[in-house]
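Onboarding guide, step 5: your first structure request.
Type a short instruction followed by the sequence, for example:

Predict the 3D structure of this protein.
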Amino acid sequence: MDYQYPEFEVVRNADRCIGCRACERQCANEVHYYDADLGKMMCDDSKCVNCQRCVTICPTRALKIIKSDNTFRENANWTMENIKEIYKQAESGGVLLSSMGNPKPLPVYWDKILINASQVTNPSIDPLREPMETKTFLGQKPSSVVRDENGNIINNLTSQLKLEVPIMFSAMSFGSISKNAHESLARAAAELGTYYNTGEGGLHKDFYQYGPNTIVQVASGRFGVHKEYLEAGAAIEIKMGQGAKPGIGGHLPGTKTVGEVSRTRMIPEGSDAISPAPHHDIYSIEDLRQLVFSLKEATEYKKPVIVKIAAVHNVAAIASGIARSGADIIAIDGFRGGTGAAPTRIRDNVGIPIELALASVDERLRQEGIRGNVSIVVGGSIRNSADIVKAIALGADAVYIGTAACIALGCHQCRACHEAKCNWGIATQRPDLVKRLNPDIGSRRLVNLVSAWDHEIKEMMGGMGINSIESLKGNRLMLRGVGLNEKELEILGIKHARRIRRT
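The system replies with structure tokens like these:
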């Protein structure tokens, strides 16, 4: 007996439906079907994940999907969600899986931080008429300027990543997303003058041409890692942790490990790609340092090395160790970060918000006098240009975006990526679904999104009287908090929006 009532209901307007069966052809979940006896379209609500594909495609706007109003008896402790999850596990005996980030109503600190604006004594800057600079460089910075005997500056910079915009596309592996999605990201990164991250799935042979705008990842499973792969990218990222699932490894189901995915990852077709929780050669900062310099040695010290960690309660101490390991960049992934598949309990209960992690790390590195040893990149639900401005003011050098990039490609946040039936051609390897995402259109949409955000960043900087992203970096005086307690304000290192006069 199935105790589950469908979460969504498909509402079909009989007067508008013309029986074209487009919904049936477009739905990979097989929700819609034609009943020849009744002579009309029918649907199986239990299969619907609310991806909105049928709603968007329907030529007569005959469809809409609503959340079911069927409820159990109210219980503040035993919510309907809790009960349904028990039903699922009682039936399957398996771990609950979820996709695309934490949906819980936990605090979003970006929404409780406001940006300052210039008025009279420090006038604003018009970005339409005055030059604005959002270019940034990621990598180690020298503590002082060194000159030769003639007074000329000696360039002692290590390898740097040059970003025309302070935005990069975060790690999404070939396998978890489609080849067409990867191509869209790669082409957009090249046009924008920024970078996209391969994730832990290796680099498809067709995308080596985008190497100057590619960050290659070395994860615990070492999938797709070989000499040519390391040499292909502009930087190498060691993945130690991920915001959506801190403390555990990755899992790509065998249903996605097909054809080019298996060849790129260098594993048998149809086999599950299971990344172990730890790197089995890293159990200390000293071990991490050895891998950092091994990768630098293998690439002749021409490429910056990034270490990616999840935002956890002791993230500042971890970052301090990484900054001393020889790494050039620290990437921190917050608990709201998206992923193709994560255990629900871990996704919803492990980790901390990226805002608190970022502020803590930046402050710790400054206190220890090693902030210049590394650049900081943050991700984990960066939703718009205002989030980026606030992140940089809290101490970030740049941000990673993943979920926002997927939404730009057409993702409707149905959070069923792990089922490999993405109707928008993003989180799937089914050829009939993959072809629905046109890389020409996908890359253009990504370029449009980042270009629009870059323009908005310049407008906000201008409003603050700042014309360079470097002047915004770590400038917490430009931020104020609302609805935050004293401890939260202390961690973030910002003041309340209104100073209370004491009498």
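Each response can be followed by summary notes, for example: Residues 439-463 form the longest helix (25 residues).
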